[in-house]
Specification:
Elements lengths: L8 H10 L3 H5 L11 H4 L6 E4 L7 H6 L16 E5 L2 E11 L2 E9 L5 H4 L1
Antiparallel strand pairs: 1-2, 2-3, 3-4
Protein name: Flagellar motor switch protein FliN
Subcellular location: Cell membrane
Keywords: Cell membrane, Chemotaxis, Flagellar rotation, Membrane
Length: 119
């Protein structure tokens, strides 16, 4: 081939790739199929807690706690309590009685797209 000629790279590649044996074409990596993780995610256990409140105290006060001690929490009486999932706040709720058990009535959820898990 004369170097002064125009060389058509695309045609050369098409010619070369068109002559590959079928075994080599079959060995080409295929993209992995897309998986719907939602059925798997729905089975992951999480811990949902209702946090009444918290207080930060020094160790000296902690060691002084005894039967009958009262610690003031950071929540006002009647204020909705924090709903936490694995320790992360996701909303607020009120305590209700359901039969002989306590329950919670959700009054606020924070930007959770629970629809992603239900498809």
């Amino acid at each position: 081939m004369d170097l002064t000629e125009n060389f058509d790279l695309e045609s050369a590649l098409d010619d070369t790739l068109g002559n590959l044996p079928e075994a080599e074409e079959a060995a080409a990596p295929q993209p992995a199929p897309r998986r719907d993780l939602n059925p798997f995610m729905r089975k992951i256990p999480v811990t949902l807690t209702l946090e009444v409140g918290a207080v930060e105290i020094p160790l000296s006060e902690l060691f002084a706690i005894e039967h009958g001690s009262v610690l003031e929490l950071d929540k006002h009486a009647g204020e909705p309590l924090d709903i936490k999932i694995n320790g992360t706040r996701v909303g607020r709720a009120e305590v209700v009685v359901v039969g002989e058990n306590y329950g919670l009535r959700v009054v606020e959820l924070e930007n959770l797209d629970m629809g992603l898990l239900s498809s």
